[in-house]
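Supplementary Methods, section 5.1.

A reviewer requested that the exact input to the structure prediction be made available. We therefore reproduce it here, unchanged from the version used in the analyses.
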Amino acid sequence: MVKKDSLFDVLSRQPWWLSVGVGVALFASARLFLPELMAGAVALPFIGIACYAGWRQLQAPSATNVTEMLGRIRGMPWENFSALLVEAFRRDGYTVSEIYQGAVDLKLDKSGRISIVSCKRWKVAQTGIGPLKDLRDVKDSNDASECIYVAAGDFTANALTFAKDKSIRLLNDAALAKLIARVESRGGWFKFR
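The structure derived from this sequence is encoded token-by-token as follows.
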């Protein structure tokens, strides 16, 4: 089944000014046929999307912050990293079970939806297809609806293709830095120093 993105989804991932441009263009076009107030109503949803996209972009860590945070993550001992990840998922509303057996490190539950997480090899510079296959192989035995693989490094081309084909969510780079930054910014017990 192919996931279809809505116009809101597509525009919210683009720079904020793109939605403003679409809104202005729609307003100018609609003004030719409609009263000014009605033309403004046509453009208003796109201005709302621009505000949302701008807010999300302000919340995203900068490239420098991402690089620094990934460096700090790679320097952590396993106990600190796993505790930080558990806290981050808990703050996102998950019930977290620490399993640490085979390919599965954490089991997440949110509204009855189970996700399994593998994060033991978070320090490697590049992850291949092997750990992803191991995680996917234990999905059914854990009654999981989702697999998440956490890494502070990159993935090989084969691993990226496999993850996409098997619907494995990869949590790395900016997404990992953002997850951890939210724990830090909310006055979390864990600080990077």
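Residues 36-59 form the longest helix (24 residues). These observations are discussed further in the main text.
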